[in-house]
Each structure stands twice: as C-alpha cells, then as structure tokens.
From TrEMBL:
GO MF entries: oxidoreductase activity
Protein name: NADPH-dependent FMN reductase
Native organism: Flavobacterium artemisiae
Record keywords: Oxidoreductase
SUPFAM superfamilies the UniProt entry points to: Flavoproteins
InterPro entries: Flavoprotein-like_sf, FMN_Rdtase-like_dom, NAD(P)H-dep_reductase
Pfam family membership, one: FMN_red
Keyword Coiled coil: no
Statement: the UniProt record of this protein carries the keyword Oxidoreductase: yes
Coiled coil location: none
EC number(s) stated in the UniProt entry for this protein: 1.-.-.-
Length: 178
C-alpha cells in the first residue's frame, strides 16, 4: 500500500491569472519530492469581503471551503506580490477570515514574497502569519525582488540566483515534513 501523500495548499496572493506568483508556485509544485501533492489556490479574488458579523456564526460557503482547504492540508505555501508597499487586499482579506480560528496554528508554512521590491509586503506577511501562529522560520521564507525579470511567461526561472534560492526553499520546506 502506497503511503499517503503530504498535502500542500499553495495560495497565490495575486489575482492576475498566470502571474509570476502563480508561476513560482507551479515551479515549486513541479520540483517538490513525489511524496507531496500540491493544490494551487488561485481563487482568492472570489472570497467575499471579511465581515466579522459572519465570521463564526454563519460564514459564507466560499469561506468554509477555503478554511477546509487549509484544515485538510499538511502544509501551506503562500506566494504573493507586494501592492503599494503592503499585502494585496485580496490576500489580507483571506487571512482576516482565518484570524478567529486556529487553522494556521502550528501549520507548516512556507512564505514567499515575489514582487518588484517586496520588502515591506514581506515584513507584513511574516507578521500576519506569526499572528496566525503558522509554523515557519528563516529557512522557509523567501523574498524575490525584481521577479518579472527572473521568471518568464512559460514559468521558467531564468535567474540562476533565483533558481538556487527556490531549490533551497524547496529543500528546507520538505525537511520540515521529514
């Protein structure tokens, strides 16, 4: 009997289809060990606006579905751009729906900010995920600056430095499950 695969939910913080962030998650998905099964969540723009009045009593079905994906995953990878020196509103919105839960508590997590600059957005991502009690460390977080020149339209990593950084990220993320 084959061992169950390690389920990873990969969340793209970009609402653009075939974004650099999606391409990076796809690259990671294709380079993770065969023990891993990755689902890339691209529908972050379909989640309703956070409403604390609906948060616990009667969350929208899209939120129940999103939360269940997180609950059922063994690990999470988030790859996001930075918009106006911050997290994209759609990603922040999705994470706000999780604040009143414990679904990220001790969940093995990888965090990537891939943007033009990304420094401030990355700091905010780390802070939000620390607040949600996600389990990550310096080896499972990565800032990729100038991403558009490092990933082509086919999803190929055209920067040797970025390819090496992603390979290290993948190896370190996998090691958290071994």
């Amino acid at each position: 009997m084959a061992a169950a695969k390690i389920k990873i939910l990969a969340i793209t913080g970009s609402t653009r289809k075939n974004s650099s962030n999606f391409r990076i998650l796809n690259y990671i998905s294709n380079h993770l060990d065969s023990k891993f099964e990755v689902e890339i969540f691209e529908d972050i723009d379909q989640l309703p606006h956070f409403n604390p009045g609906l948060d616990n009593q009667n969350p929208p079905t899209e939120i129940d579905s999103f939360r269940n994906k997180i609950i059922n995953a063994d690990g999470i990878i988030i790859c996001t751009p930075e918009y106006v020196f911050s997290l994209p509103g759609s990603l922040k919105n999705a994470l706000e729906w999780c604040v009143s839960t414990t679904i990220f508590s001790n969940k093995k997590t990888g965090l990537i900010t891939a943007s033009a600059s990304g420094e401030m957005g990355h700091e905010q991502l780390l802070l939000v995920m620390k607040t949600l009690e996600a389990k990550f460390d310096a080896t499972t977080e990565l800032l990729i600056q100038g991403v558009r020149g490092k990933v082509n339209d086919k999803g190929e990593i055209v920067s040797v430095e970025t390819a090496e950084a992603l390979q290290n990220f993948i190896k370190n993320f996998e090691n958290h499950f071994l």
